[in-house]
Amino acid sequence: MTDEHGEPAPLDGNGLGGVLGAFLGVDVTDAILVCDGCGRQQVLAALVVFGAGPGGVARCRGCSHVMLRVAEIRNELVVDLRGTTRLRLRRP
Ligand SMILES: [Zn+2]
């Protein structure tokens, strides 16, 4: 899907949560992340995600700060949390 300028349209964090959940074995779409840029607390599903295929870059819905980068490379998942002050996961 593209926006009015032909650029890939941003997605919400549910797809990224699905990729993470497949590797971790738990649903992490309701994981709470705190933005390093503005301090906003939000669930993973609410982040604004750019990128096609497995993985992507997730930005804060409040200030657009990059909070999370996820890439699936061969059979490994690489997660870069620079931009996130805190990550809270609930016990399944
Ligand atoms: Zn922010």
Q: Count the beta strands.
A: 8
Strand order of the largest sheet: 1-4-5-6-7
Structural class: mainly beta
Main beta sheet, described?
A: 5 strands, antiparallel
Number of helical elements = 1
Return the string of H and E elements.
EHEEEEEEE
Bound molecule kinds, no repeats: zinc ion
What fraction, in percent, of the residue positions are helical?
10-25%
The value of Rg in angstroms is 13 Å
Runs in which pLDDT lies below 50 for 5 or more consecutive residues are: none
Mean pLDDT: 90
Determine the N-to-C terminus distance: 33 Å
Shape: globular
Number of domains: 1
Description:
- It is a single chain.
- The chain is mostly beta strands and 92 residues long.
- The chain has one domain.
- Strands 1-4-5-6-7 form a five-stranded antiparallel sheet, with helices on one face.
- A hairpin with a 4-residue loop joins strand 4 and strand 5.
- The structure holds zinc ion (ZN).
List the helices and strands and how they pair.
Blueprint (H helix, E strand, L loop, with lengths): L10 E2 L1 H11 L7 E4 L5 E3 L4 E3 L4 E5 L6 E8 L2 E5 L3 E5 L4
Antiparallel strand pairs: 1-4, 2-3, 2-8, 4-5, 5-6, 6-7
This protein binds zinc ion.
List keywords for this structure.
92 residues; three-stranded antiparallel beta sheet; globular; binds zinc ion
Compact description:
By secondary structure, the chain is mainly beta. 12% of the residues lie in helices and 38% in strands.
